[in-house]
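Task 17 of the worksheet. Students: predict the tertiary structure of the chain below and write it out as structure tokens. Keep your answer in the requested format; marks are given for formatting as well as content.
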Amino acid sequence: MIRRVTAPALFPPPTYSHASVVEAGTKLAFLAGAVPLDEHGELVGPGDPVRQAEQVIANLREQLRVVGSGLEHVLSTDVYVVSSEPSVLSAVWEVVESSGLSTGPHSSTLLGVACLGYTGQLVEITATAVVPERTEDGR
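Model answer:
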């Protein structure tokens, strides 16, 4: 269903693929940016990009669950981090890797940005995922 491609002529990416190919007719989910807010709309981990990344992954899991998908079906992400420091971006990427999100591996872009939508927000992840077909027994 998903073919993950690493272009042999390009530098091999450490934990992601250059492209993901999906056959026509597959159901896809295009997710809004997962943000580090809890169920009450409160910012989780003020000033802590790693804690915020953990909350973002938890929220992304929930977004995927409600559409019948999961982290293992993610094709592509954009990871936004409010920082210009490569070490901060790397720390957030370590959370992404440890979540299982990059198991595919999926195609991803990691970006340092000036600001995000909520006051104090340091991390946001957008994703595109396959929604697998369900069999008659629900699997």
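Marker's comment: The longest helix spans residues 49-66. The helical segments are 49-66, 86-99.
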